[in-house]
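Lab notebook: predicted structure, single chain.

Context: the supervisor wants predicted structures on file for every construct in the current expression panel, including those that have not yet been purified. This is the next one on the list. No modifications to the sequence; it matches the entry in the shared construct table.
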Amino acid sequence: MVRSPPLDPWAKLWQSATTTGWTVTKIVNSGSNPLSASSDLESQDDGAEASSRRHRGLLRQPLFLALVVLPTLLGVLYFGLFANDVYISESRFVVRTQSRMQVSPLGALLSSGSLSGPGEETSAVIEYVESRDALAATDRDGMVRKAFGEERANWFSRFGGLFGGTSREHLFRYFGRKVTIETDPVTQVATLTVRAFDPQDARTINLRLLEQSESLVNQMSERARGDAIAVAQKEVDESKDRARQAAIALAAFRQRSGIVDPKEEAEVRLQMISKLQDELIATRTQLQQMRTYTPRASQIPYLRTRQASLEQEIADQTRRITGGDKSLSGAAVRYQELFLDSQMAEKQLAATVVSLEEARADARRKRAYVERVAAPSLPDYAMEPLRIRGMIAVLLVSLLVWGIVSTLLVGVREHRD
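Prediction complete. Output recorded below exactly as produced.
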């Protein structure tokens, strides 16, 4: 008994694929139940000679050769010889801030059951990594063009290869397909992935993007802190100017009117008037007694003169307090206005100084920074392309296309007949 030599794995795969394609065509052409078609197939495959004859018949068909054999050979050739190894470098980081907004227990309970998106700083980092500025900073010495140029990859995969341009816009689109960044909605950890044709190039690009992201977060943090302090400092400067102007106006009023404090000045004058009134009462009493008991006394003219002087002095002091615009009462209104302005300016200055110190302390607390969870890795094995899977995918797709086209052709023939 002569035994046929065993088939190698590739021959078995080819035999299985062609059998599958022939089965699809048979089922579609027959238009019958797949189970009955399968039973017919089993009845027709009783002998190894019939199976071999069918395979040789398929290989002689131009349509099968064009839609299955040729694409499969090209796929095997590409994935086996031409496809470049792709190395993947990954890094993980999280953007942290030392100060977080306080959340109420009810808000924490309501937000615990839902997935929250990335924070403002993390979103800014994601947008930056996918921007042209990040590409320009990474390719500042031509490293990106060299990493994806003709020295690293074949004509199909490199930058500016088959039907590809070499402009900055083309480089940006090509670079966007090689760099991805994703964020875990639960842990808020961002994963930066870079694909390149050399492991060192992948790690270098990943490291540069990560360093630029750290610089971006630091700049945003410093700018926010600087803006808050600058606003508070501006308010302090404005308050100082208002306090200075109020003090100058009050000093000018005192110099112009010769009155330091109208209220104190009025109190002194009122005390003086009170004393003069006491003396006037005593003088009147004494004059009245002398007129009654000694009408010819020599002191009566003196007392009369003294009484008139006291009355005149009391009238002058009263007029200085309450009479006219130049009186103490008129000056007190203007003085009180200037004094209140000065007091308010001083209090506002004190409040702005406190606000400045609080802004500085708050700026020291609210500092955002990038914390590396995992440094950019240096791959030692090419994770892409998946060569065997790619070959099988090309074969299966070719068989599917061949089955569909064969079915359409059979239908066209039957329609003509």
